[in-house]
């Protein structure tokens, strides 16, 4: 049985941030938002805009993520203070990494609150993504021992997403290229997934078209239209992942986790995607559709044709060029033995083969 659920509400418009944030906090009667961002965004223009969008009676709590902090570090460090502060909603902003850390903080609060004498409940999660959009779904399902999680929480998606393309204007060309690569790989693997979900297929195809336009176009930070389309591509990519997380995103997340913010997902996706597609059999109808929307010749293997499309992006071609070693890929492949979603069919040996091919 296919269960199709899209519980997220999205605001998408240039300059909508302050108005949307204020209206959603007021509509949900939230007065103690936890604002979470990376250190570099803590005192920047985006942080000022976030505070400007808070209702007058709001008492915000703000925490920042250091460059080397893991999501576990952030949750452990902030948990005692947050139990005292009692936030009623978590609002990460500025990056996919901030949203990942916010999800872990929410999980810790829900899981550990009884030890502090408080009633467990899932906090709402709002998100203001940057140029890199929303993060991948969690590799493992939420702990089944936490029955308080509702459908929105279990999806891993924020309840409210505020996509304001003006937020992405300050991104570097390299970050924009990484975001385009992420959106492209996520949409492609979602479309190629065996899971049956027609709405997700349509979303993935639309995202592919937008991501391809970004990859083949000019990622000039001054072009508002390109930033808008890139943000739309990344939103589509995450929504399409209701079909499951693909091998490229799975391995990218596992490889990045021990390295804090040193490794970016876009450069990893550029290296891993062709290898993950190698030897893959694509159903003829999907291959024909891909040939049309990606302007493929159709006389080469899909991995080779995709490698040509992404070949001009400003990223390294091998994992070793990104500073990774054989020890890193052995450690990563071992983690595939963890319980994963049924939609993730990558095995430890297959993961090792993909990574060895591009080490």
Explain what this protein looks like in three dimensions.
Helix 6 (173-192) runs parallel beside helix 10 (265-277), helix 7 runs antiparallel to helix 8 and helix 13 packs antiparallel against helix 14 (348-357). Strand 4, helix 4 (96-112) and strand 5 (124-127) form a beta-alpha-beta unit. The protein starts with 8 loop residues before the first strand and ends with a helix. It contains 14 helices and six strands. Strands 1-6-5-4-2-3 form a six-stranded parallel sheet, with helices on both faces. With 359 residues, the chain is α/β, with parallel strands linked by helices.
Would you spell out the secondary-structure blueprint of this structure?
Elements lengths: L8 E4 L4 H11 L5 E6 L6 H8 L8 E5 L5 H15 L3 E4 L3 H17 L11 E4 L23 H5 L4 E4 L9 H20 L5 H19 L7 H17 L6 H10 L8 H13 L6 H11 L7 H9 L15 H9 L13 H10 L2
Parallel strand pairs: 1-6, 2-3, 2-4, 4-5, 5-6
Helix pairs in contact: 3-4, 6-7, 6-8, 6-10, 7-8, 9-10, 10-12, 13-14
């Amino acid at each position: 049985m296919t269960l199709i659920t899209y519980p997220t509400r999205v605001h998408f418009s240039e300059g909508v941030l302050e108005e949307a944030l204020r209206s959603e906090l007021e509509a949900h009667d939230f007065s103690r938002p936890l604002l979470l961002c990376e250190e570099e965004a803590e005192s920047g223009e985006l942080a000022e805009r976030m505070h400007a969008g808070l209702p007058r009676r709001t008492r915000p709590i703000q925490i920042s993520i250091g460059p080397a902090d893991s999501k576990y570090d952030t949750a452990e460090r902030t948990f005692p203070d947050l139990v005292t502060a009692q936030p009623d909603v978590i609002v990460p902003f500025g990056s996919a990494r901030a949203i990942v850390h916010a999800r872990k903080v929410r999980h810790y609060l829900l899981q550990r609150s009884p030890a502090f004498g408080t009633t467990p409940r899932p906090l709402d999660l709002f998100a203001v993504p940057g140029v890199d959009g929303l993060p991948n779904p969690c590799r493992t399902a939420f702990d089944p021992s936490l029955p308080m999680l509702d459908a929105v929480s279990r999806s891993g998606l924020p309840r409210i997403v505020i996509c304001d393309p003006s937020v992405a204007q300050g991104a570097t060309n390299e970050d924009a290229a990484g975001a385009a690569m992420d959106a492209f790989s996520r949409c492609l693997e979602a479309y190629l997934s065996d899971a049956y979900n027609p709405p997700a297929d349509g979303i993935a195809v639309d995202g592919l078209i937008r991501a391809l336009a970004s990859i083949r176009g000019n990622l000039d930070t001054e072009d508002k239209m390109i930033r808008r389309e890139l943000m739309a591509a990344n939103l589509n990519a995450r929504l399409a992942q209701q079909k499951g997380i693909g091998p490229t995103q799975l391995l990218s997340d596992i490889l990045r986790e021990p390295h804090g913010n040193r490794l970016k997902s876009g450069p990893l996706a550029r290296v891993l995607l062709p290898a993950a597609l190698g030897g893959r059999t694509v159903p003829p109808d999907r291959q024909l559709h891909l040939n049309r929307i990606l302007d493929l010749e159709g006389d080469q293997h899909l991995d080779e044709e995709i490698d040509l499309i992404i070949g001009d992006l400003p990223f390294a071609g091998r994992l070793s060029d990104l500073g990774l070693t054989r020890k890193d890929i052995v450690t990563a492949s071992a983690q595939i033995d963890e319980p994963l979603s049924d939609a993730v069919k990558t095995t430890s040996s297959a993961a090792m083969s993909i990574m060895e091919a591009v080490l």
